[in-house]
């Protein structure tokens, strides 16, 4: 580590001020992948208002809770929720242990890549697949399965690992908030254990700040060995009204910032908005069919309809991905930048 | 705030070294209310082993999770769990809104201070009382009720507010751990909302680090107003095997230190002990009938029987309150100190 005092003495004050400080200022400019405009301004103005000493909107660091949906807000969700693609791959990986799946729907459909049969199985079928692939092992074994899959699986469109299909502007927002002593949480419909397997590494969000859908687990102590087993029984569905409920149950404080991208985030935003003082409610609007995907009111995945209306009525921040984001993914070369 | 550079210039270096540094050293001596001996030594040696750079037992700060039971571990639990005394007082406070309680057990017993009828109602009766007094209001209103009660109620034996019936040596342990970058959690059988109403103020443990028994809550959005309502339906009983389950669900990391005082903490200690590397499992043994209470294997409250056996077998730290603690409560005058 460089001792700043020695460093200053060696190079002289003038050099420090002419060379180093401007570089630092540039490095500290928040949200570099956001185009200048009303959206970026609304985020920076909010953060300054609640963090500057003496501001009438000042919020104590301990109360600077920021919550983010994951699918479609921090990483992609097309052509299907990534966790569902994990579940399909797990069915194939473990098929030998379940010979009955060859003749039982919806598992047969997964094994045969039969999209029509899978569609016919509907949400109930998908839940069966998630239940079967997310249970019957310890929480630590499940964590291993997810990590192994993430290290090998590739996104069907980009060919990138799913952990790189994350939104660079949102990573910068997480960093910016944490630099201002916000505590950043994920509050999302994904399985908590699934999200914990990557959230710390790719978002800098530790396991204890990941809130999601949960299944009943049981404690076992056998032959001096303690473990926690996952069962397929749903404990909490962290979507819609389930989000403010889990925020209250796990955090016990009302967030002052909430970001989502779909109607499943509406109640989380309403709950955030209902508190006293200044708040920021935001939605990522997928408007960029060229660099990412364009979808909203009619989409089966990440439908954004009622929440978009309420955002417009109440003046919430709506991110127009196509025009507000200079870059979408960390791996995007500068040439993918949109012309303003 | 004193600017340390100016301060040093004004008073001179010699004064700093002769006067200030020894005072700082004394102030930093951990666990002043613990008598010197094997128990205090086991705590300090554990903390040093997992925090000193280069130690073979070194644990990264992010993984320094420490969990504490509350009733009987951080504060008292005699002559009855304090939360139960709150529930009895709430029955009396709200009796006018429930005229049927005058003739319905177990509420009638509470209103008439009929200890025999209350005992006859058993655990089921107590759960009814807790359910009735802990539901039907928003989580924020419940927080207000608990805070109001805590500000007015007094312990039947000491005449002190319940928030002063806390164990000074354990407060010092919490402080010591946090000074070494541990994250301190409560994992206890009390209602999460009840404990959050005081945990930050008296223990320095923020709401998001309080894990307890929970009841189902529901989100309501009416006339543009968002709220979360408490129902009497149990969601999670945070006792026994429920403790490692909630630790895994909420924290998602295995603690490296766990402290309890009863058989209800056994599984939490087993789960903590089952991880790799150095760990500290501890029990507060209530052996001090003079300054506090003496109870263990036969007690209906905080029964310590199987966990005491397992602690002895496995070499866990057992705190002998009478001989290990120089002082019990923060309000104890020095004259209450035990003679060694």
From TrEMBL, chains A, B:
Signal peptide boundaries: 1-27
Domain of life, source organism: Bacteria
Assigned keywords, A-Z: Hydrolase, Magnesium, Metal-binding, Signal
Molecular function via GO: hydrolase activity; metal ion binding
Database matches in CDD domains: HAD_like (cd01427)
Protein name (record): Haloacid dehalogenase-like hydrolase
């Amino acid at each position: 580590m460089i001792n700043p005092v020695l460093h200053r003495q060696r190079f002289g004050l003038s050099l420090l001020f002419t060379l180093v400080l401007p570089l630092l200022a540039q490095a500290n400019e928040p949200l570099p992948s956001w185009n200048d405009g009303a959206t970026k301004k609304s985020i920076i103005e909010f953060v300054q208002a609640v963090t500057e000493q003496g501001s009438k909107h000042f919020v104590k660091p301990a109360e600077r809770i920021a919550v983010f949906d994951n699918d479609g807000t921090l990483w992609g969700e097309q052509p299907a929720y990534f966790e569902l693609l994990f579940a399909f791959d797990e069915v194939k990986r473990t098929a030998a242990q379940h010979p009955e799946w060859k003749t039982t729907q919806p598992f047969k459909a997964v094994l045969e890549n039969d999209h029509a049969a899978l569609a016919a199985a509907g949400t109930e079928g998908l839940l069966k697949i998630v239940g079967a692939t997310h249970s019957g092992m310890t929480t630590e074994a499940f964590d291993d399965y997810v990590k192994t899959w993430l290290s090998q699986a590739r996104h069907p469109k980009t060919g990138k690992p799913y952990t790189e299909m994350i939104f660079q502007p949102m990573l910068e927002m997480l960093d910016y908030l944490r630099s201002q002593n916000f505590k950043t949480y994920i509050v999302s419909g994904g399985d908590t254990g699934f999200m914990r397997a990557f959230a710390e590494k790719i978002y800098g969000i530790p396991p204890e700040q990941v809130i999601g859908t949960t299944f009943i687990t049981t404690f076992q102590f056998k032959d001096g060995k303690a473990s926690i087993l996952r069962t397929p029984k749903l404990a909490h569905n962290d979507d819609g009204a389930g989000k403010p409920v889990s925020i209250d149950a796990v955090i016990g404080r009302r967030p002052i910032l909430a970001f989502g991208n779909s109607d499943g985030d509406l109640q989380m935003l309403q709950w955030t908005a209902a508190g006293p003082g200044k708040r920021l409610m935001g939605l990522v609007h997928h408007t960029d069919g060229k660099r990412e995907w364009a979808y909203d009111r009619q989409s089966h995945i990440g439908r954004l309809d009622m929440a978009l209306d309420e955002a417009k009525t109440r003046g919430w921040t709506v991110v127009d991905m196509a025009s507000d984001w200079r870059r979408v993914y960390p791996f995007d070369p500068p040439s993918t930048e949109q012309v303003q």
